[in-house]
Amino acid sequence: MSQVWSEENTNAYFPHPRGYVALGSNRELAVVNTKYLQNLAYCRLKNLSIGYTLPDKWLSKIGFEKIRVYFSGENLLTFTKLHSDYIDPEQASASNSWKTSKSDANIYPWAKTYSFGVDITF
Questions:
Q1: Which phi and psi (to 5°) does residue 47 adopt?
Q2: Which of 37, 38, 72, 75 would suit a FRET pair with 59, their CA atoms being 20 to 30 Å apart?
Q3: What pTM was estimated for this model as a whole?
Q4: What are the residues whose beta carbons fall under 8 Å from the beta carbon of 87, sequence distance 6 or more?
């Protein structure tokens, strides 16, 4: 409750909860304001691949032509100033209707994917 307005907490992020003021388009919770606008600027490390090919002098001793070890990652880091961990700045939309079936900003971020592998050529 530390983020909800009270007489002692006038700088809270959320207003005092009152259900009766949210039901109409002309009620005080429906009035357009900038209080909850967020900066969607972000920086994301979308994909990264790192590999190492073993030297030929090592491989000739064990009968391989080429061995390459690699790591690959997708969506590894996202830097943003959003106030929520479950809003993905890359997928947020400007939908303003709660009646729409389209998800707007409340979309979970892309999953982080890690891959490790070895390529062997005989």
A1: -150, 150
A2: 72
A3: 0.58
A4: 38, 105, 106, 107
According to the per-residue pLDDT averaged within each range, which of 14-23, 46-55, 100-109 is highest?
A: 46-55
> Mapping DSSP to helix (H, G, I), strand (E, B) and coil, where does residue 30 land?
helix
Burial of 88 (0-12, 13-18, 19+ CB in 10 A): buried
DSSP-assigned beta bridge partners for residue 113 = 74
Question: Where does residue 115 rank: exposed (0-12), middle (13-18), buried (19+ CB within 10 A)?
Answer: exposed
SS3 readout for 86-104? CCCCCCCCCCCCCCCCCCC
Mean pLDDT of the chain: 79
Say yes or no to pLDDT of 17 above 60: yes
d(CA 80, CA 77): 10
